Amino acid sequence: MKLSQFKFRLPEELIAQRPAPERDQSRMMVVNRRTGEIEHKIFKDIIDYFDDGDLFVYNDTMVFPARLYGNKEKTGARIEVFLLRELSAENKLWDVLVEPARKIRIGNKLYFGDDESMVAEVIDNTTSRGRTLRFLYDGPHEEFKKELYKLGTTPLPYYINREPDEEDAERYQTIFARKEGAVIVPGAALHFSRELLKRLEIKGVNQGFITIHSGLGNYRDIDVEDLTKHRMDSEEMEADEELVKLVNATKDGGHRVCAVGTSVLRAVASSVSMGDHMKTYSGWTNKFIFPPYDFSVTDALVSNFHLPYSTMLMMVAAFGGYDLVMDAYKKAVKEGYKFGVYGDAMLIVS
């Protein structure tokens, strides 16, 4: 498929700038990929589409406050630093992006905080924008991380045109978050409230957890028309034995597995084994999914409405079928659905 096939008109006012007042009160479009039927619901109605023995798989990654601002030594120039991942706890090395990149060279020092007590030194240039920083801090690692995160703010995506606030600290995080490592929240899972989870539990719908630490590669522009030539950034993931047993027992029992979010869809597809089953996996995945693609484990998908040309839209189209999904997106625009991480939801069932 071609990149240009994922273009559609998205009015700027349809990109959600804030979350819904309640997690499970967003709108939800339900798309049946077998019949082509489209329904318009509220997210908490999702319980009506699943039965005793079905399984929801959630991403339990935790977003950390990755965006911080420092000042360059001597010039005092303001530099934005985006923490991507910790490379070495012992040496306090971090892989980061910096803006403006042209002002930063190896050997430069950056000072953070009102009292400039946190200092970092640039020790490597990895890309045109990327750098490796060594933070100069003498205390214990846990104390260092605590102080570093105090300086950071919620890493809202580029299309949210405002500064993060206290509400974002809570709402740009799922209720399942427990394993730190993501800079992008699993947006589809933001719709699940504790009350909705309890109702699903009472109905007999099971829950399982996979970990995939979503990175900025999800927002990186694709610069090739031929999608087979695009390379995804690698993301760390883990599908443990507990989840694998749960998924495989669900499949063997003739029940459905629902992936909550494209990150889960991708992680499950990276852990597929023979016979429509999963296998344990711990490591990295750079799997890029676009139509056509045969999903052997996942039977249903919860996703938000994604922006044009995005890899997340491509994954949704691969699962639901290109023509049906793109038609549903046109209807979503016409009906005023909200797009983006704080936007409304789409449920694809068979």
Automatic annotation (TrEMBL):
Similarity comment text for this entry: Belongs to the QueA family.
Functional pathway: tRNA modification; tRNA-queuosine biosynthesis
EC number: 2.4.99.17
Gene Ontology MF annotations: S-adenosylmethionine:tRNA ribosyltransferase-isomerase activity
Gene3D superfamilies given in the database record: QueA-like
InterPro entries (alphabetical): QueA, QueA_dom1, QueA_dom2, QueA_sf
Pfam family name, one: Queuosine_synth
Keywords: Cytoplasm, Isomerase, Queuosine biosynthesis, S-adenosyl-L-methionine, Transferase
Domain of life from the UniProt record: Bacteria
Self-association and partners: Monomer.
Cellular compartments annotated: Cytoplasm
Keyword Chloroplast: no
Function: Transfers and isomerizes the ribose moiety from AdoMet to the 7-aminomethyl group of 7-deazaguanine (preQ1-tRNA) to give epoxyqueuosine (oQ-tRNA).
GO annotation, cellular component aspect: cytoplasm
GO biological process: tRNA queuosine(34) biosynthetic process
Name the record gives this protein: S-adenosylmethionine:tRNA ribosyltransferase-isomerase
Swiss-Prot/TrEMBL catalytic activity: 7-aminomethyl-7-carbaguanosine(34) in tRNA + S-adenosyl-L-methionine = epoxyqueuosine(34) in tRNA + adenine + L-methionine + 2 H(+)
Enzyme class, spelled out: transferase
